[in-house]
Every structure is written in structure tokens, then in C-alpha cells.
Amino acid sequence: MSSNFYRLGTANMYDNALRNLGTRQTSLSNLQENLTSGKRVVRASDDPVSAAQAERAINRLTRIQTEQRALETQRNAIAQAESALGDAIGLVQNFRELTVSAGSATLTPNDRVTIANQLQGLREQILEVANRKDTNGIPLLGALGSALAPFLGPLTSTPDYSFAGLPGQSASTGVTIPGTLDGDAAFMFDPQRDGVYNAAISAIPNDRQLTTTVVKPIDKSLITGDSYSITFSAVGPGATTGTSTATYTLTNTTTGAVSAPITVPDYPSNKPVTFTIPDPAIAADFPGLSMDVTGNPANGDTITMQPAPSMFSTLDSAIRDIRSAPNSNAAIQAVGQALGNMDIGLERLHNMRGYAGELLNRADRITGDQDKRSVQLEGDRSRAEDLDMIQGISDFQNQQVGYEAALKSYAMVQKLSLFNFIG
């Protein structure tokens, strides 16, 4: 029969019990900290991988918030620019209605001067709207960069209006939209894109009813933006009743080139005659334009064709021609030219306003996409570091019960002594 003897050191037993109590207390304290913070990973040492994942998600969330703040600033600027274009379109339409009324044959020259004064006020408002700035003092229609006032004019030089900036439209990205719109494309005309010309007649007595249609581009690639004039000479009775013989020359007033005289043997007074530049009989110095002339020309009558560099130039031409119209025939000529050219300008404004609306829609789509990414990243962060509260409470209560039991057992053992059993 064998006997096993164990020797237990009282001091060692107490030390082990104290170490166990300390360990349990530390675990209980950590669980309490997790419950208080709501996080499973309070410090990186708790779980280095999860801590890195959570930090990466937090950084991406911060970047999205920064991008959204920038996008909101851009959205506000484009919304203001779209509103400015809407105001400009409304003012141009008011200008158009007044211009139509100026063509009435019942108006006197003084009446047309009054209308011209009203038109002048509208034109000044349109220029102010075009130079409108956002709350930070940045031009809303500044394109790729411009001075504090992008549109300068009227100037004494040619062209009479200019865009003081860099034309063009900055591109959007996946998380941003432009902060400005291309005002040059909205208000300035390009000869090869728009082909806008204003035709004026030197003298238009009512008895001859000489008028022209709006100058139309035939081949925009040939248009150079030069100025032209048509001068009639040798006008006399024709071979057919109701016609006359008319000779005219075309002059490029920009380059000084003059065509050979062109004779129309039977020039009708009751039908339009089309003048085409270039004409088969004219040199190529007169490219890409066409218009119809109706009425009876006389020797020395001149029709000038000036390019309109901007919407403002078209409005100024309408104001000038209506103000100076000596009779209803001249007023009709001015009104017809102004309406045709304003319609081209309104199309440019509508196109740019539509583009602004698309930018606002794009901003909404970007915000929606960023919200979805934020939800996904928040989920990634939560999975990496957040505490399952139910599991955390259960673990804390279990640890608390164990710690209390350890304390009680240690207290009971500590009270034991050999002297308690010696009689």
C-alpha cells in the first residue's frame, strides 16, 4: 500500500489566489469598459486586425463627408447659376415681346424711342444677371476662370462685348460637379457655330418697302466673321412689268475685297431675291451666308451685314435700329433682324440652362451613391469594432458571478487556521 504526501505552502496558496482574483478583476473591468463604450475593440491591442479595418472604414467615411461638403457648395453654385440663366431667359423674352410691339405700323418715331428706352433698361438687367456672383464672390458664369465681371461691354472697340476669362466647361468627376458654368457658350456667339449677322439698310422709304430676311448660314465652316455690304447701282425699268434692272456689288468691309458688278435683268419688286455669299459669280472672299431681299432698291441703297459677337450685341443692335427707325418699314427691318438673332441666342441660353439642370441631377445621383457607400462603410466599421451588447452583458454577468464566488471562497479559506482545531 502506497501513500502520497502533498505539502502545500500556505503563503504560495495565498499568492495564487490573489493572482487569480486580480486576473478576474481585470477581466471584469475590461468587460465593463466594453459595455460602457459599446465597442469590442477599445484599443488596437485588443484586436489589431479589427482595429485596422475599423480605422480604414472611418478614414473613408471622413473622406466621403469632406467630398459631400464640397459637392454641396458646388450644388449651391450651380443652382444659383441655373436660376440666373432662368432670369436671363425671362428678361430676353420680355425684350422680345417689346421688340415685336415696336414693329407696329401705328407707332410714331417717338413711340419707338420710348420702347427703345425700355429695351435699354432690360439689356442692362440682362448684363447684370450674366455677371452675377455666388455668395463667395465667384462669377456664376465664369467658365474655366474669369475676372470678377466676366462680360465686359459695351466697348468702343470691336467686338463691342468680350468675355474676360477662359472659355470652356470644367468636367465632372465621380464625386464632384463644376462650380461654374460656361458663360461664353451661353451669351457669346461664335461665327462658325452660330453664324449670327445683323442686316441693316441705309435708307428705307415706305414707298419702296425694301427689307431683308435674317442672314442665314449656308456652310458654317466657311464663315469667317467678316463684315459685308451690298451696294445697288444702275437700277431702272426691266423688260417685264413689275420688274427692274438692278446691279449690285458685294464688298468685304473687313478685308476690302470687292466683287465684280452683278446684274439682275428682271429684279422683281413683289418677290424676294436671294443673295448668296459666295455667289457663283463672286470671288470666295464672301463665304457661307445667304439672305432674301424684298422691295424696290434704288441707286446707292446699301445693305450692311455685321456679325453679332454676343447676345448683348444683338440686343444693342435692336435698340439702336428701333430708336433710329424713321418709319415703319425701317422698324419692321430692325424687328425682323432682332427676332431672328434673339431666337438663336435664346437657344444657347436654353441649352446651357438644360446643362445646369443635368449637373444638379448628377449631384443628386452622386449624393445617393455616397449615402450607399457610407452605409456600407459604417457596417464594415461596426462589424470590426462594435460590441454585441447581448453577448457583452452575458459575459459581464458570468464574470461578475465568478469574481464574487472567488472573493467569498478566498475569504473563507483565509479565516482557516490550525489553532482553530487544537483543543
What does this structure look like?
- The chain has 423 residues and is of the alpha+beta class.
- The protein folds into 2 domains: 39-189 and 313-386, f41 fragment of flagellin, N-terminal domain (Up-down Bundle), CATH 1.20.1330; 193-307, no CATH class.
- It is built from 8 helices and 11 strands.
- It has a 5-stranded antiparallel sheet with strand order 3-11-6-7-8. Strands 4, 5, 9 and 10 form a 4-stranded antiparallel sheet that branches. Strands 1-2 form a two-stranded antiparallel sheet.
- Strand 6 (228-237) and strand 7 form a beta hairpin.
- Helix 2 packs antiparallel against helix 7 and helix 6 (311-324) packs antiparallel against helix 7 (328-385).
- The chain starts with 9 loop residues before the first helix and ends in an 8-residue tail after the last helix.
The overall number of domains is 2
Strand content: 15-25%
Major β-sheet strand ordering: 3-11-6-7-8
- What is the makeup of the main sheet? 5 strands, antiparallel
C-alpha end-to-end distance: 32 Å
- Using the alpha-carbon principal axes, give the shape: rod-shaped
Query: Averaging pLDDT over every residue, what do you get?
Result: 85
Per DSSP, the total helix count is 8
The SSE string, one letter per element, is HHHEEHHEEEEEEEEEHHH
* Fraction of residues in H or I helices: 40-55%
By oligomeric state, this entry counts as: single chain
Unreliable stretches (pLDDT < 50, length at least 5) are none
Q: What would you say the CATH architecture of the largest domain is? A: Up-down Bundle
The CATH class assignment of the largest domain is: Mainly Alpha
